[in-house]
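Two quick folds needed for the group meeting slides. Do the first one here.
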Amino acid sequence: MRAARAVGLLAGAQRRLRACHECDWVSALPPLGSGEKANCPRCAHTLVKRHRFPAQRSMALAVASLIALIIAVSFPFVSFSVSGVSNRIELSQTATTLIAFHQPMVAIAVIMTIAVLPALYLVGVIWLQYGLLRGRPQPFSRDIARSLSHLVPWMMADVFIIGALVSLIKIAGLAQISLGISFWAFCAFALLLLKTSQSLDADWMWFSLEGEPLAPEGTRTGTTAAAQNVTGCPTCGLINRLPANGKARCRRCHEKLHKRLPHSLQRTWALLFAATVMYIPANVYPIMTTTSLGSSSPSTIIGGVVQLLQMGSWPVAAVIFVASVIVPVGKLFALSWLCLAVRRSGELKAQSRTRLYRLTEFIGRWSMVDVFVVAILVALIRAGSLMSITPGPAALAFGAVVVLTMLAAMTFDPRLLWDTPPPRAPRPGRAATSTTATKESVDG
């Protein structure tokens, strides 16, 4: 009886092992109640966060978000009036108008990040939770569940709201602004979408969809997964054994597995270099051109900040300066420094460097504020020679900087910060001195 109970306890412990995605530390998950979470004891990364009624909660929020999005795309978004000339736009026109100005890539980025990808995410959540509530998962549930985590970084409805507010403040003194039903519906949509993504209990969802196979035999806690030739799945969290070639797929969700992301530093350096190159035209060329009473005035990113300061809009100028200058440049320097620091890492330094990585990964998407400002103003301000705004070539370049820096953060593997760097080979001239000193200290 005692032997059977011991085997059961061991199996139960193995079922709940997790390898941290940021430091590779293997831990055993404790039983969690509603509202509780389990953090990695080494780097404090959140491994699992439990919610009350996870299926009902996520599905209710997803349905509400989808309804708010449908309302947002069905009614007028905002309108303006100046000197008897008025214009009213819908949400979709923030993207379609850019196509008329030969900016299709920027238009695709805008509509995908504010509407298409969020809608796909919400439909996926509803599809999954509906099947789980019925007790019978729907077809393609595993593939959809695996895709959800990849969509989250690219959904930018909340960033678009900040861009809309900045746009309205910039033209509030020049024209009369009226907010439509769509504007308030989109604000509700952005908030509900954020709550939906936060309410998704991935650990419970994967357990309900596919169960949880036992961890590989012999897996121990209190050490790294790489030292045991196992790895944690970045999507569902399950610990898997790695074959000799180091390439495999997760037994539960079929996500690709690696001990460390292949060529992580090389890919990060390449993306950072490309982002640095694109940042030059993003600041040299105008991001938009304003025409007022037949006179055209091109404006760069820095020029727009200066103009806002001259108008007395200090808070808006600060938002644009931080999002368009501080964040991209800071992210380039931070990721470059982290790539260099990998070879000189240690556990005490790795903690602070991991926190820096989390910060750069979180703030990167907020640089899209300036792109959204251009999209909204170009669609809204169309009054011919009286007043109009056209996008400049810097809009595409700056959008590329945002995407490239986000990809750079994704390709950087933070577990490298916790790996012990290989010892440096001693120089031939110093080898004998080091050996002699060691021998003398031992003999003494």
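Then this one, please, same format:
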Amino acid sequence: MADSCEPLPAWPMPRSCPYAPPDAYEGLRKDPPLKVRIRGGEAWLVTRHADVRQVLNDNRFSSDDQQPGFPIRIQLPPEPGVMSFSRMDGAEHGRLRRMAMTEFTARRTRALRPEVELLVEQLLDELAAGPNPVDLVKSFALRLPSLVIARMLGVPEDDEADFAEQSQVILSQDASPEETYAAFVEMSQFLDRLAAQRTADPQDDLISRLVTRYVATGELTHQELVAMARFFLVAGHETTAHQISLSVLSLLRDPDQLAELRADPALFKPAVEELLRYWSISQDNQVRAAVADVELGGARIRKGDGVIVAIPGANHDESVYPDPDRLDIHRNASGHLAFGFGAHLCPGASLARMELEVCLSGLFARFPTLRLAVPSEDVRFRQNTIVYGLEDLPVTW
């Protein structure tokens, strides 16, 4: 760790190449975790795969955003539970997560696949009939996860664009606190009304099933239901959308590996795992607060210290993934931490994997001549946001 007289390095750290994590991570993995300067204070930065796994699976590191020292990355109202069980520990986390997971089992994901395949086909039909070139982010990557999560929750399709915009504002680091709060309130008010409607008249959707099973029995309050739905919308839309566009970009830049995938579509399944590892788009939303003194990778972390988990650093750890900055669809990428690890493993992991496999295989099958419409160096990456991604992806065929 740096000498106490030296200024702490600022975080987030810059990338010299948009296709790789911050340069500093490689050097940091050789040493114990160090403290960095963040908005509002300081926190420990953890970059090694083994250390990240420990933090994510050790109850001495709390997910409760009410804990002293918890690093605040999203400027949301300070009351407990605004992001549901993602920011809770212990029994309360377990109680709400168990309710949610009934909707995200592998069986339910398999049952959803035909509907996702149909949605992808409809979007591809629209692409084929629309302008060429086209921005694939706006016309495809953002729309599919919005449609899927909206259908799951029972949100009318007419509100899809509003939710996409609100999610982006909530997760942006450039939005003012007033803008973030306004987007949060608008989304919350809509979901509050929707939950009330489903309580009065249940339908065949996720919110209705949670109402029938848990709200009606008193196990889940109305506000807890609204918070859970809000978490699903924000987390389930932004992450998958930007993983789709980045994955398409990677494969368009690597025609040899893309040709292999086209020749053998069974390779899309392992390729999705490697693309998840390679991009690791959760740049910095995995944060914790130490609730006890902990020895971690040679550092002494004190109770009340904030901890930032660098998922891109862990997934590019050379000791686990040789030549980590190279995309290799034949790599065994198992053990990657793109969905987290431990008790807070992303509940929508199986759904996201399925969406990625369906949309990538469908897109490249429908458009065999798909290619970038601009030089790859002109593709614009999103800056200063919690979820890494692209501003746009101009393509032609």
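Slide caption for protein two: Residues 36 and 42 are 6 Å apart (CA to CA).
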